[in-house]
Design goal:
51% of the residues lie in helices and 9% in strands. It contains ten helices and six strands, in the order ααααααββααβββααβ. It has a four-stranded mixed β-sheet with strand order 4-3-5-6. Strands 1-2 form a two-stranded antiparallel sheet. A hairpin with a 3-residue loop joins strand 3 and strand 4.
Length: 265
C-alpha cells in the first residue's frame, strides 16, 4: 500500500497554525540568545554550523509565505503521508540551499523577525485549502503546515543538541503533530496489524505484516518517548543504539523496526 492510499489522520487547522507560530517563536527566542561562539559550533547535521542550522529553520518556515505568494497549481498531487518519503531526494539540495540562505542572511534577529511577520500576515489571510507549489510537490496549505511542525520540532532538537543548556521548549501541539505524522508514515510504509508502536501520549499505530492482534496485550509491542521516536524516524539515532540504551522497549519477534528506519532522508 502506498503512503498516499493510507487513510490520513486529520489535524485541526487552527491548532496547527497556532503550533507553527508558537514553535517558531520558541526558536526565535532561543536563537536571539546565542553568542557568536555558539553560532560557530558544529551540529550533528554534517558540516552545518549552528548559524547555518538557525538560518535553515527560518528558511523552512519562510517557505510557507514564499509559496503562498506564488501562483497556485491547478490541483494537489502530494498527500500529507507522501511528504516524509519525498524528503530524501531533496536532502542534498536542501543542505546547499541552507548554506546559501545563511550567507545571504547574516543578521539572524532581522531574519527571524521578518519571517515571523510575513508568516503571521499570510496565515491570517489565506485559507487552509489554498494549494501551494512546494519543493516535494503540490499540496494544500493545511497539509504543508503539518509538515512545518516536523521541520520545527526536528530542528529544535538539533539546535538543543548542538548547544548544551539551550533547552529550547517544544510547543505541545507541534510535538504531537510531528510525532503522529511520523508514526502514521511508519504504518504506511509497513502496513499490517502484527506490531503495535506506542509513542505516549501522542500516538499508537498498528504496522508490519503478520497475524493481526485483536484483544489483550499485543504479542509485538514497541514503545518509546516522542523525541526518541522522532530521532529514530529522522535518522538522528540508530535503532540498535536506542534499544541498547533502553530508550526503546521492544518485545516480540516482529518488534525489530531497524530495517524500516529512518523514514525521512
Amino acid at each position: 500500500m502506498s503512503p498516499a492510499k493510507k487513510r490520513a489522520r486529520t489535524y485541526d487547522p487552527a491548532k496547527i497554525r497556532t503550533a507553527v507560530l508558537a514553535q517558531f517563536g520558541n526558536v526565535r527566542a532561543a536563537v536571539h540568545t546565542l553568542t557568536p561562539e555558539q553560532l560557530t559550533r558544529p551540529t550533528r547535521l554534517g558540516d552545518w554550523t549552528v548559524r547555518e542550522l538557525a538560518a535553515h529553520i527560518a528558511m523552512a518556515v519562510e517557505s510557507v509565505s514564499r509559496t503562498i505568494d506564488l501562483e497556485p497549481p491547478a490541483k494537489a498531487e502530494l498527500a500529507l503521508l507522501d511528504w516524509p518519503f519525498a524528503t530524501a531526494a531533496l536532502a542534498a539540495a536542501g543542505a546547499d540551499l541552507g548554506r546559501e540562505f545563511a550567507r545571504e542572511h547574516p543578521d539572524l534577529d532581522a531574519l527571524y523577525a521578518h519571517t515571523e511577520q510575513r508568516l503571521t500576515e499570510r496565515l491570517a489571510a489565506t485559507p487552509g485549502e489554498r494549494l501551494l507549489v512546494t519543493r516535494p510537490g503540490f499540496m494544500t496549505l493545511a497539509d504543508y503546515l503539518v509538515t512545518r511542525t516536523v521541520e520545527l520540532v526536528v530542528h529544535t532538537d538539533d539546535l538543543n543538541a548542538a548547544v548544551p543548556g539551550l533547552d529550547t521548549p517544544y510547543d505541545r501541539q507541534a510535538l504531537a503533530a510531528c510525532t503522529r505524522l511520523l508514526a502514521d508514515a511508519l504504518a504506511a510504509k509497513a502496513p499490517g496489524g502484527s506490531t503495535e508502536v506506542r509513542v505516549p501520549p501522542y500516538a499508537v499505530v498498528q504496522c508490519v505484516e503478520g497475524p493481526k492482534h485483536t484483544r489483550g496485550t499485543p504479542p509485538n509491542v514497541v514503545e518509546t518517548d516522542p523525541l526518541t521516536w522522532i530521532r529514530l524516524a529522522t535518522g538522528r539515532v540508530a535503532w540498535q543504539d536506542a534499544v541498547a540504551q533502553a530508550r526503546v522497549s521492544a518485545s516480540g519477534e516482529r518488534a525489530d523496526l531497524g530495517g524500516l528506519l529512518p523514514l525521512m532522508g
